[in-house]
Amino acid sequence: MSGDIITVEVRILNETDKAWLVTPDAKHQAEWVPKSQVEIEDRHEIKEFHLMQVPEWLATRAGLV
Questions:
Q1: Domains in the chain: ranges and CATH
Q2: Helix (H/G/I), strand (E/B), else coil: 53
Q3: How far apart are CA 43 and CA 39, in angstroms?
Q4: What pLDDT shows up at residue 28?
Q5: Interval 50-59: pLDDT, tens
Q6: Residues 6 or more apart from 15 whose CB is under 8 A from it?
Q7: What is the model's pLDDT at position 44?
Q8: What local confidence, expressed as pLDDT, does residue 33 receive?
Q9: In this predicted model, which residue has the larger pLDDT, 50 or 1?
Q10: What pTM was estimated for this model as a whole?
């Protein structure tokens, strides 16, 4: 598994103290990703999609790539 950090575009559907529920588009099932593993740019802005930096292994496991 790669430890590389990649950037993916996601839609944030829900949030808890420890995770975000995200999906790359309407065709994919949403997945919870731990906040401790990712960074989301401009997450306080209201917009349809956000850029998320995530380890490549996690993005693959969550179906984001």
A1: 5-61 (2.30.30)
A2: strand
A3: 9
A4: 87
A5: 999 999 999 9
A6: 21
A7: 77
A8: 97
A9: 50
A10: 0.84
H or E element, residue 56:
helix 56-61
Kindly report the length of the chain.
Answer: 65
Helix or strand holding residue 59 (H, E): helix 56-61
pLDDT at residue 1 tops 60: no
CB 64 within 8 A of CB 10: yes
The amino acid at residue 52 is: M
The torsion defined by the Cα of 32, 52, 27 and 14, in degrees rounded to 10, comes to 40
Closest by CA position to 51, among listed 5, 2, 17, 19: 5
**Torsion-angle region of 59 (φ positive above 0: left; ψ -120 to 50: alpha; else: beta):** alpha
User: Alpha carbon 39 to chain centroid distance?
Assistant: 8
CA distance 61 to 33: 10
